[in-house]
């Protein structure tokens, strides 16, 4: 007869696999978990960031990106978004469920996290949280952990590094700040921050902390939370933020991309790598972003992108006529 801990581990593996099938299921899983466990602030952040990943995926199939980027480049961007978010969920969701089991049983089960290849550094952070109940530190520890989880297997993996992050097309879209993490609100305004220097793990951690501040401490936190709770997620900006994207296509994300099967390669403990300094990143304080209401800024950038798309279309027509 199996021990209760063994049954829990088997169930967690099954649940994680079931809910990690695509962007929609991941986003909803984070949301439902946070509503059950509101002290787990990271799950709220993860759900909102996951929405942005889905919107970026949908953008790849519509205007103007379908004119600006070749089919191959759009495929590469999609695979990058999907792989990074799949890896984060496969690492983080078992941690969240282990915590939920620990709450129900009244005793810490974090020693079981090694069954899921969770980094030793992160396991210690969970143990510290159990005794301290410092929810802010745990949230920031999860930000640090998950960005390190994807650093080698995705960001610095040969396929992604050589075929995407070093290429001019990626640097171009970063310089123009077309990639942004946006938090809609019930007032119609957009709040968030730009993604810059994405391959640098320290920059990604800083961004995560800034986004967490907007969600949890900014004066606009209640209007953003109201949107989070009351608006369903379909993975398309036109459906999810109709006041901003009135003329875009209206197909949900699941109609645009098939499910992707991921190989879960052998995972190493990133925290054993001497090149990383997670404690320094954890305790590094950030200043709240000065300007994080991005509504007007974002609309301007979208207009620029549309102009670029029309220009690309005209150039293509001229080449065909020539």
What does this entry look like structurally?
It is a single chain. The model is unreliable at 313-322 (pLDDT under 50). It is built from 15 helices and 2 strands. With 322 residues, the protein is mainly alpha-helical. The chain has one domain (4-235, 279-321). It has helices at 4-19, 23-36, 41-59, 65-68, 71-105, 120-132, 135-149, 151-155, 158-165, 168-175, 201-216, 221-230, 237-240, 278-283, 295-321; strands spanning 180-184, 190-194. It is globular. Strands 1-2 form a two-stranded antiparallel sheet. Pfam families: DUF2515. It comes from Salipaludibacillus aurantiacus. This is DUF2515 domain-containing protein.
What would a concise description of this structure say?
The chain has about 325 residues and is mainly alpha-helical. It is built from 15 helices and two strands.
Low-confidence stretches: 313-322
Structural class: mainly alpha
Query: Biggest sheet, open or closed, and with what strands and sense?
Result: 2 strands, antiparallel
Helix content: 55-70%
Biggest sheet: strand arrangement: 1-2
Instruction: Compute the average pLDDT.
Output: 88
User: In total, how many beta strands?
Assistant: 2
**Percent of sequence in beta strands:** under 5%
Note the run of SSEs as H and E.
HHHHHHHHHHEEHHHHH
Provide the number of structural domains. Answer: 1
What Rg do the Cα atoms give? 20 Å
Organism: Salipaludibacillus aurantiacus
Pfam families: DUF2515
InterPro entries: DUF2515
Protein name: DUF2515 domain-containing protein
């Amino acid at each position: 007869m199996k021990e209760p801990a063994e049954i829990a581990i088997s169930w967690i593996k099954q649940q994680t696999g079931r809910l990690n099938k695509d962007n929609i299921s991941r986003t909803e899983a984070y949301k439902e978990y946070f509503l059950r466990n509101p002290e787990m602030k990271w799950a709220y952040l993860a759900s909102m960031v996951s929405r942005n990943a889905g919107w970026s995926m949908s953008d790849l199939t519509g205007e103007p990106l379908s004119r600006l980027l070749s089919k191959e480049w759009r495929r590469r961007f999609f695979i990058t978004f999907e792989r990074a978010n799949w890896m984060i969920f496969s690492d983080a969701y078992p941690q969240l469920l282990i915590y939920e089991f620990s709450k129900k049983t009244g005793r810490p089960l974090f020693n079981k996290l090694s069954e899921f290849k969770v980094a030793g550094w992160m396991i210690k952070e969970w143990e510290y949280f159990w005794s301290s109940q410092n929810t802010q530190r745990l949230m920031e520890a999860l930000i640090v952990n998950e960005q390190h989880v994807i650093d080698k297997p995705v960001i610095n993996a040969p396929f992604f590094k050589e075929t995407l992050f070093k290429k001019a097309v990626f640097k171009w879209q970063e310089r123009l700040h077309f990639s942004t993490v946006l938090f809609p609100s019930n007032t119609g305004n957009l709040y968030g921050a730009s993604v810059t220097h994405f391959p640098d793990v320290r920059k990604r951690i800083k961004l995560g902390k800034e986004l967490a501040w907007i969600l949890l401490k900014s004066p606009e936190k209640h209007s953003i939370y109201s949107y989070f709770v009351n608006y369903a997620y379909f993975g398309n900006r036109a459906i999810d933020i109709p006041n901003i994207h009135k003329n875009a296509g209206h197909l949900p994300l699941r109609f645009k991309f098939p499910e992707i099967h991921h190989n879960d390669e052998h995972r190493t403990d990133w925290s054993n790598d001497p090149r990383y300094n997670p404690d320094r990143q954890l305790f590094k304080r950030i200043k709240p972003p000065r300007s994080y209401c991005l509504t007007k800024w974002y609309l301007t950038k979208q207009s620029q992108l549309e102009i670029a798309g029309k220009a690309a279309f005209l150039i293509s027509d001229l080449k065909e006529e020539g």
